[in-house]
Write the structure tokens for this entry.
Amino acid sequence: MKKPMAMAVFLLFCAALPPAFTWADTPTDPMAAPAAFKPHWGFELGLNSSGTPGDNGGGGAANDLSFTATRELSDSGSFFSLSAMGGSQKVEGYTAKYGSLSANGGLGLGFFQPSLSLSAQTGEESLFATTAGLNLGFQIFDDISIGVNFTGGFSSHKTPLPLLLPGAPDVEVEVDGKNWGGGLSFIWATSEIFSLTLSGQNSNEITYQLKFKGPKVDLTVPLNQSSVIPSTSLGFNWAFVKDFALNGSVQRSAEFEPAGTSYSPSLGEVVNNDTATTLYFSGYSIGLTFNFE
């Protein structure tokens, strides 16, 4: 009689359990093997504002909205992602709208984590730019990593000639340039929700030709004017609440401009210098991201 009574008590206990209860809710064996990794998608929405105000006035500025979809391929850190961005930035003294698409991919090879990025941008003022980047990441300790990066690309935009030379004929000028650079970054994850990044970068912006077009003008002028821009920055990322993160940075840079006509990326416009000139800028950026699956 004891066995039927025990079975009846067990059935009554099961019937009294809440509907949402399952036996999977019971504590798991701490010695059990962890669940196998499954590739999955992650998504991110971001808002960002940045600028490089000059010590003597001027400077670039940008505001944008971005969406990124990332496919996590392995628990070692291999991934690929696709991003779309839209916003506004300063081009020849005007605020021009733009959009961009980019693709990124990386491998998790233990302490070595290389990644490659490609992007294309188009917008008002006939703005068009392409950029490729290579980053070599090294996980030195659990909380410290360094990265060595290389970038290069081409850019083009148009502007009325009177903006460059007041009183000049109403002719449109296409400014074509190329750029390359490299840098080093140091990342310290002080906790699970906060990290600091210290980086240095050196960029070379080369204006290689100007194209003049008008009713009676179709002229291409070769150039080789190079602006060198060394910079340092200190940034942070703070996951202050679940799925949300605040990020920002401060930057200090100098732009060494040659004598003659060249495009200044820091000012966001073509400049004419009688002699070689050095400009100084203090940059900033602030952004908010939302992550979801």
Remarks:
- The chain has one domain: 39-292.
- The longest helix spans residues 2-15.
- Residues 6-14, 19-26 have pLDDT under 50 and may be disordered.
- Residues 209 and 222 are 4 Å apart (CA to CA).
